[in-house]
Design brief:
With 303 residues, the chain is of the alpha/beta class. It has helices spanning 6-14, 30-41, 53-63, 78-90, 104-112, 152-168, 190-203, 218-222, 224-230, 248-261, 286-302, and strands spanning 20-25, 45-51, 72-74, 96-99, 125-131, 139-142, 175-179, 211-216, 242-244, 265-271, 277-278. It has a six-stranded mixed β-sheet, with helices on both faces. The chain is globular, with a radius of gyration of 19 Å. The two termini are 16 Å apart.
Length: 303
């Protein structure tokens, strides 16, 4: 199965027999709770809210969000709220976490704690699902928000994280494009060398359940017509499901270009932890937060 649009994903999640429980850290934030309310109204999530209880109750009343008394935990301090959110996952009180009104570092610190956190032994990476107006299906970009300058081994982990996440929502053999500025290996361009190494890992079975191509330029990965003009023959050409970027700078710029310049929609979270961590930025719209909740619910249901 390949997702053509977010509408398809939303309908898929709405058909699930029961909602998933999202633990929101520092939940006293209107935009976050508005996204939660939309997901609640559609039967996608049940919220477990951690933060300044008085503020949470006030905002919930203003927007018409009903939350069970037992599902609101008073933790006015952001650090305390983040720690409590992680603890609630360990207690089986939630299926995934969402960041509310706190800094990214504050939520990630208890998540990555080696003794009490949610690590799995692999790197954690940022998974973004994009809906682009002129592309024929949804596409993943990774990693533009977590790993800054990943090593070859870390890029391998990012691909594994991404493939496992896509498998959880129904993908069988996603096509991964390790993008660079050129399509040939050039020792002076490390990203091309590593892209080729990742392709070889895929061919020899070290990276499974996907097709990895690289180095490959972005235009070839997204356009079969351009691939044909350039004589690039690959099942990934013009049909990529995943764009693996060489570093966070490329990923960040590409992601913002998709939403701001191209008018695309996105949903994203941290993968590689025991549960998804919905970690939208301060500039994220309520729609992006809502779609990220939908995506996290879908992935949680598929695991």
């Amino acid at each position: 199965m390949v997702l053509k649009s977010f509408d398809v994903l939303v309908e898929k999640v709405k058909s699930f027999p029961e909602p998933k429980r999202v633990v929101v850290a520092a939940a006293g934030d209107a935009h976050t709770l508005e996204a939660i309310k939309e997901a609640v109204d559609e039967g996608i999530v049940t919220p477990v809210l951690v933060g300044d209880k008085a503020k949470i109750v006030e905002i919930a009343a203003e927007i018409g969000l009903t939350v069970a008394e037992d599902d609101i935990y008073d933790a006015p301090d952001a650090v305390e709220a983040a720690q409590k959110a992680v603890a609630l996952i360990h207690e089986g009180k939630g299926d995934f976490i969402m960041k509310g009104k706190l800094e990214t570092a504050q939520i990630l610190k208890p998540v990555v704690n080696k003794e009490t956190g949610l690590g799995t032994g692999r790197v954690m990476s940022h998974f973004v699902l994009d809906e682009i107006p002129n592309y024929h299906k949804l596409i993943v970009t990774t990693d533009g928000g977590m790993m800054t300058y990943p090593t070859l081994e870390q890029k391998k982990d990012i691909i594994v994280n991404t493939v496992e996440t896509l498998k959880a929502i129904g993908y069988e053999n996603p096509k991964v494009a390790c993008v660079a500025a050129v399509e040939k290996v050039n020792p002076k361009m490390p990203e091309t060398v590593e892209a080729d190494a990742l392709k070889q890992m895929n061919l020899n079975g070290e990276i499974k359940d996907c097709i990895v191509e690289g180095p490959i330029s972005l235009d070839i990965a997204l356009s079969k017509e351009i691939a044909d003009l350039k004589g690039f023959d690959s099942p990934v050409a013009g049909d990529a499901d995943v764009i693996l970027v060489p570093n966070i700078q490329v990923g960040n710029i590409l992601g913002k270009s998709i939403t701001v310049i191209a008018g695309g929609n996105m949903a994203g979270f941290i993968v590689g932890a025991q549960v998804p961590i919905v970690l939208t930025s301060r500039g994220s719209s309520a729609k992006e937060k809502y779609l990220s909740l939908v995506l996290a619910a879908a992935v949680t249901a598929g695991k």
